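stage 2 :: seqdesign
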C-alpha cells in the first residue's frame, strides 16, 4: 500500500531513494527475451532469441535496422522500442539531409539516453520499458552500446540483457578477451553460444527462433537469413572456445 503513494508518477522518490516507475521499467527489460552483443576490431554482432505465443503465430522481431551503419536489439516492451527506433531513424534521416553524411554513432546514442533520462525529471509520460543493445560503425571502428530506461548509456566489448542474461554474461566475461582478435565467423558463434547458455530447452534454439545481425568496416548492417543461422547452429556443437586459434 505504501508503494502506491510513490508510483503514480516517475518523478516522486520513495523513502528508499528509488523511482518506482523506473524500477518497473527495468523489470520489464529483465523479463524480455535475451539479447547478446559482441564486437571485435572490425565487426559488431547482435544475437537474440525470438519467441512465439503459439504455433499459429510468427516469431516476434527483436532486431531492427536504424541506418546502414546502425542496428539495435531490444528486450522489453516492443511498442516502446518501435517509438525509439522511429526516433533514431528520423534523426539519421535529418542528419543525412542536412549534412550529407551518416549520423555520428555516439552522438545518436547520447540523444537516446537523454530522451530516456528526461522522463525521470518531468512529470509527464512513464519511462520507456525497453532496454537496447545497439551496434554501429564509424571512423573509429565498430561499437556496442547498451541503454536502459533510467537513461544510462554504456559501451561494452560484449554484453547481454533480458531474461536469464546472467548465464550469457558469465560466458562473455570468460571469453571476451579473445574477441578483438577473433574472426567474424567465430564472433557470431560466440554470440550464439552465449544465447544458448541461457536457454533451458534446447528445442527453443533453431534457425527461426534466433536472429543474428552484423555491422562492420565496409560491411553495412545486415540481418542474417534463417539459412545462414542454421549454418552457425550446425557448427555450434563442435565449437570449443578454449581450442580457438587466435591469430597474433
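stage 2 :: out
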Amino acid at each position: 500500500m505504501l508503494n502506491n503513494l510513490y508510483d503514480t508518477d516517475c518523478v516522486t522518490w520513495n523513502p528508499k531513494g528509488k523511482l518506482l516507475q523506473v524500477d518497473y521499467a527495468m523489470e520489464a527489460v529483465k523479463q524480455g527475451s535475451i539479447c547478446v552483443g559482441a564486437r571485435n576490431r572490425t565487426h559488431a554482432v547482435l544475437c537474440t532469441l525470438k519467441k512465439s505465443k503459439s504455433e499459429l503465430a510468427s516469431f516476434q522481431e527483436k532486431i531492427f535496422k536504424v541506418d546502414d551503419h546502425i542496428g539495435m536489439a531490444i528486450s522489453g516492451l516492443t511498442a516502446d522500442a518501435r517509438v525509439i527506433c522511429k526516433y533514431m531513424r528520423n534523426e539519421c534521416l535529418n542528419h543525412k539531409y542536412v549534412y550529407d553524411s551518416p549520423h555520428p554513432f555516439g552522438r545518436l546514442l547520447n540523444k537516446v539516453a537523454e530522451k530516456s533520462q528526461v522522463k525521470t525529471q518531468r512529470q509527464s509520460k512513464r519511462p520507456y520499458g525497453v532496454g537496447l543493445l545497439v551496434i554501429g560503425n564509424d571512423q573509429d571502428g565498430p561499437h556496442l552500446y547498451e541503454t536502459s530506461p533510467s537513461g544510462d548509456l554504456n559501451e561494452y566489448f560484449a554484453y547481454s540483457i533480458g531474461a536469464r542474461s546472467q548465464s550469457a554474461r558469465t560466458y562473455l566475461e570468460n571469453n571476451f578477451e579473445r574477441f578483438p582478435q577473433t574472426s567474424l565467423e567465430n564472433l557470431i558463434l560466440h554470440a550464439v553460444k552465449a544465447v544458448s547458455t541461457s536457454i533451458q530447452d534446447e528445442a527453443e534454439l533453431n534457425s527461426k527462433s534466433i536472429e543474428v545481425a552484423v555491422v562492420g568496416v565496409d560491411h553495412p548492417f545486415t540481418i542474417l537469413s534463417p539459412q545462414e543461422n542454421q549454418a552457425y547452429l550446425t557448427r555450434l556443437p563442435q565449437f570449443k572456445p578454449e581450442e580457438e586459434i587466435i591469430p597474433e
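stage 3 :: structure notes
- The chain has one domain: 33-239.
- The longest strand covers residues 130-138.
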